[in-house]
Write a structure and sequence with these properties.
Blueprint: H1 6-16, E1 21-25, E2 28-31, H2 32-48, E3 56-59, H3 65-77, E4 80-83, H4 90-100, E5 104-108, E6 110-111, E7 114-115, H5 116-123, E8 132-136, E9 147-149, H6 150-156, E10 174-178, E11 186-190, H7 192-206, E12 213-216, H8 223-235, E13 238-241, H9 247-256, E14 261-264, H10 266-274, E15 288-291, H11 298-305, E16 310-315, E17 322-325, H12 332-337, E18 341-342, E19 347-351, E20 366-370, E21 377-378
Parallel strand pairs: 1-13, 3-4, 3-5, 5-8, 8-9, 12-13, 14-15, 15-16
Antiparallel strand pairs: 1-2, 6-7, 10-11, 11-21, 16-17, 17-18, 19-20
Helix pairs in contact: 1-8, 2-3, 2-6, 7-8
Length: 383
């Protein structure tokens, strides 16, 4: 594998084609050069604010350009990102922030019915490790001098020295919370190598080229969306971001932006096909995509492939996330009724849940996975 840092990969792409479209959100468009500059300034500002390599940075944002810039900046500064669902309730959010012991947080000023500034004002006394809050929005924070508007924080970086990403013993790139089979959510620690290489292996297996335009409507706080974003940034694809998935808006965006690749959950594809404008939509630019995040009925996969030649992926947060996927060269019946074959370098087998003994073909049991993309472990849960 090519063990280059995510930031080094992206910097090389930005130097090679600085004017290539990188991030699109509504009418806002940023080139690779613009994204690289903003991420660099933000990394400098993070360091100047007292955040050091190994610190954890919560990203409690909807999909959008600030999410992607924050990810690159955190990676450059040696921080571990903690993606959070913006719709978490008070107690769930408090638990994950405290369990991760975050040193910084990037949040929206408001979202839906939630006033995030007010919410974090209430949370602050319970978060002793929190040194910095940066909020996306035009408002003025009245509650704490640790709160800085996102745009202002980026600009502060202009007056700070350059930040080189750490080269030895990189901290985890991400700490992703996943619902456990029992009890509270577990924090899955994933390395730079695992997340970047797994995403690129998936892109290669899909046969995506260098000029793809990917619609990212899957939430980035989920490992599926995070992997899509990381893969696109490392591969050089243009990312078209939707803050939330809404079928009518998604169809209009697919048409307007001539999107070529569409990752989504089964529910998202189903809702698209039920949308009143679907039959008339011009989706001719779509070359493929992936459907993941839940089980996919063969009939649904067949209907999707009539207009978008998707592959089915099986994965889990702990595995980086992809374990197996279908491919276009697979026998048609296997492609429509299975989750494909393990990615290169990944081994999977079905074992007896009690004894660990290997089961034969078509057996029901527990799936054991050996992979170069496996997690580093669960945060604060030593083996």
């Amino acid at each position: 594998m090519d063990h280059r840092h995510l930031v080094a990969r992206f910097a090389e792409l930005a130097q090679r084609e600085p004017d290539h479209p990188c991030l699109i959100e509504g009418s806002q468009r940023l080139t690779r050069a613009a994204v690289a500059e903003q991420a660099d300034l933000l990394a400098r500002a993070f360091r100047a604010s007292g955040l050091v390599p190994g610190d954890r940075l919560a990203i409690d944002l909807p999909n959008g350009i600030p999410w992607a810039i924050t990810l690159l900046a955190a990676a450059q500064a040696g921080l571990t990102v903690v993606p959070l669902d913006p719709e978490l309730g008070y107690h769930e959010l408090q638990y994950q922030l405290r369990h991760a012991a975050v040193a910084g947080a990037v949040i929206p000023e408001a979202g839906g019915s939630i006033d995030f500034l007010e919410l974090f004002d209430e949370l602050l006394p319970t978060l002793p490790s929190l040194q910095l809050i940066s909020y996306v929005g035009p408002g003025t924070a009245w509650f704490d001098d640790r709160a800085v508007p996102f745009a202002e924080l980026v600009e502060r970086g202009r007056h700070q020295p350059p930040v080189e990403p750490p080269h030895l013993e990189l901290p985890p790139l991400a700490l992703v919370y996943t619902s456990g089979t029992m009890g509270k959510p577990k924090g899955v620690m994933q390395s730079h190598d695992a997340l970047v290489e797994c995403a690129l292996a998936t892109i290669k297996a899909m046969g995506l080229g260098p000029d793809e335009r990917i619609l990212l409507a899957v939430p980035i706080f989920h490992i599926f969306g995070l992997s899509v974003l990381i893969g696109a940034l490392a591969h050089g694809s243009t990312v078209v971001l939707l803050p939330t998935f809404e079928p009518t808006l998604a169809l209009a965006t697919l048409e307007r932006e001539r999107v070529t690749a569409l990752p989504g959950t089964p529910t998202m594809f189903e809702l698209l096909m039920r949308s009143p404008g679907f039959a008339a939509a011009d989706l001719g630019a779509l070359r493929g995509g992936v459907v993941a995040g839940n089980s996919v009925a063969p009939g649904l996969a067949d209907r999707i492939r009539e207009w978008c030649d998707v592959e089915v992926i099986y994965g889990l947060t702990e595995a980086g996330p992809a374990v197996s996927m279908t491919q276009r060269g697979d026998p048609p019946e296997k492609r429509r009724t299975t989750v494909g074959r393990p990615l290169p370098g990944v081994e999977a087998r079905v074992v007896d849940i009690r004894t660990g003994d290997l089961h034969g073909q078509e057996a029901v049991g527990e799936l054991a996975v050996r992979s170069p993309y496996l997690m580093l472990g669960y945060h604060r849960m030593p083996v």
